[in-house]
Write a structure and sequence with these properties.
By secondary structure, this protein is of the alpha/beta class. It is built from 16 helices and 24 strands. Bound molecules: nicotinamide-adenine-dinucleotide. Nicotinamide-adenine-dinucleotide binds near residues 233 and 234.
């Protein structure tokens, strides 16, 4: 591991530049916590603008050779990376659990979904095929090629420290770009392990780099003239600002933001299935997923029996350290975040909601880590703060809607539009919902509709700034630019070779 031990207990997580760990010269660093114990377990370097400039320069130099590498070679290193990540799933998962807090089982799921994106990148020769039109005019062919952009950057959130970077760098690099990752400062170690695996897979030094840090590093990436594109995943205010600054500086930007995902349940739904789905999707990873269900919209008579079924399931969730087998929900990422999430439960009744289950009473809250049990808020209205804000924790709200039309209106009026789900046995209603709803990813009896890697992931409205979704076919478009070539090669006997052409000031025509 490229993590330097500086004492008996505390280690420093460095940058990774040019194929090696590199210490920062900024003199600034942050604490990396173990959320299950509440103790600091490492320091992470915070890059200065000069550290970022160094990484960009190295990546720029590496681009010259890498963009010229054979497609089969790029596919080969992605196949090797796939094998290495596959062989080290457990190690990666435990690293995630130690710094993020999610259970090892959940972390293994994260690794599996990241791996899918490497598998997609293995098909790069096929993905970069262009179009070719023979005889667009007599003796003239037209074809389109896709070329990489140069140095591209990825800025990623704390909640998926392995998967979200894997949404970005395998495809960006397979497309021929060189890459700079700025991971979340809250759980940075896995980024260095992935860098080591990239090196073992045969990726040349300088093609994949990591700069650790905060806003200073991000700001420099956004203004650096040699960074050609930025993929960002994080909260909406930061996503909006990254999009505005990056595009103002002439960069291609895709900035994925926060979410408030609704699950609409109709009276004809399979109640047990809907309750299982709501509980799994609301409380998995302690609700720290951008595709978590945070609002159940219960239509008509389904509300009371659905809430009873959800409460019954919630009472059985085991909260505790993610490393301990049998625990289903770990702690939150930091003490401050845990306290912020708990404040929504504390304030819910003064807003007029009913606290049906209070997660602050969970026995796990007695532990020294950043634990909070699962909460259920009933009779929530769209005007309340607990509805309007992205809470990003184990709090599920229930909005009771009299009719399907009102439920749809509530969902479509929400400023976010990431994921949404409908639970019903009526295929016609589900199809109409899919047609009407303003969200980028829709689940029909599926609560977390994260697209498989050969589709693309992205929300609508305040959940995404930019034109293209992330990974999959949109990812190939994002990380390449097209060039169209119009070429004249005529056989000598037709007497139409370029050397025999005549002066003609008219605009070129093809007939
Ligand atoms: P965040 O916005 O605080 O941080 C994301 C990244 O931006 C980190 O690398 C961080 O260091 C950097 N950053 C933070 N503040 C910054 C600033 N002012 N200027 C420049 N850079 C800054 O998000 P987070 O708390 O790490 O992650 C949780 C958020 O991410 C939630 O809102 C969640 O919904 C969202 N998220 C969205 C998706 C999606 O696909 N839409 C996926 C995962 C997470």
């Amino acid at each position: 591991m490229a993590i330097v031990d500086v004492g008996a207990r505390i280690r420093t997580v460095n940058h990774w530049i040019g194929g090696n760990p590199v210490a920062s010269n900024s003199g600034r660093s942050g604490d990396v916590w173990n959320p299950a114990t509440g103790e600091a377990q490492a320091k992470v370097d915070f890059a200065s603008a000069a550290d970022v400039d160094h990484a960009v320069e190295i990546a720029k130099q590496a681009f010259v050779e890498w963009r010229a590498s054979a497609l089969s070679r790029r596919a080969e290193v992605m196949f090797k990376l796939r094998e290495l990540v596959d062989a080290n799933r457990r190690r990666i998962a435990e690293m995630l659990t130690s710094e993020h807090g999610k259970t090892v089982l959940d972390a293994l799921g994260e690794v599996a979904r990241g791996l899918e994106n490497i598998e997609f990148a293995c098909g790069i020769p096929n993905l970069l095929k262009g179009g070719f039109s023979e005889q667009a005019s007599r003796g003239i062919d037209v074809y389109q090629i896709r070329q990489p952009l140069g140095v591209v950057a990825g800025i990623t959130p704390f909640n998926f420290p392995a998967m979200v970077p894997m949404w970005m760098f395998p495809l960006a690099i397979a497309c021929g770009n060189t890459f700079i990752l700025k991971p979340s400062e809250k759980d940075p170690s896995v980024s260095l392990y992935l860098a080591e695996l990239m090196k073992q897979a045969g990726v040349p030094d300088g093609v994949f780099n990591v700069v650790q840090g905060d806003k200073v590093a991000v700001d420099r990436l956004l203004e650096h003239p040699d960074v050609k594109a930025v993929s960002f995943v994080g909260s909406t205010p930061v996503a909006r600002s990254i999009y505005e600054t990056g595009t103002r500086n002439g960069k291609r930007v895709q900035a994925l933001g926060g979410a408030k995902n609704h699950m609409l349940v109709l009276p004809d739904a399979d109640l047990g299935m809907a309750a299982d789905a709501a509980v799994s999707a609301a409380f998995g990873s302690a609700g720290e997923r951008c595709m978590s269900i945070s609002v159940v919209v219960a239509v008509g008579s389904v509300a009371d029996p659905l809430i009873a079924a959800i409460r019954e399931r919630m009472s059985r969730i085991k909260v505790g350290p993610g490393m301990e087998e049998g625990n289903e929900m770990g702690p939150l990422i930091t003490r401050e975040h845990r306290d912020r999430v708990a404040s929504y439960v504390a304030n819910a009744s003064s807003e007029g909601a009913t606290v049906a289950v209070d997660g602050r009473q969970d026995a796990a809250c007695q532990r020294s880590g950043f634990f909070l049990g699962t909460s259920l808020l009933d009779h929530v209205e769209p005007s309340m703060r607990c509805y309007r804000d992205e809470i990003f924790g184990p709090v599920l709200s229930v909005v009771r809607a009299g009719t399907y039309d009102r439920a749809l209106r509530i969902i479509n009026e929400n400023p976010y539009g990431n994921g949404v789900a409908i639970f019903t046995r009526d295929g016609g209603t589900a199809r109409q919902f899919q047609f009407d709803v303003d969200a980028g990813m829709v689940g029909v009896n599926v609560p977390i509709p994260v697209p498989v890697s050969y589709y693309s992931f992205g929300g609508w409205k305040a959940s995404l700034f930019g034109d293209l979704h992330i990974y999959g076919p949109d990812g190939v478009q994002f990380y390449t630019r097209t060039k169209v070539v119009t070429a004249r090669w005529a056989a000598p006997e037709t007497n139409k070779a370029p050397g025999t052409s005549a002066v003609d000031l008219g605009f070129p025509q093809s007939r």
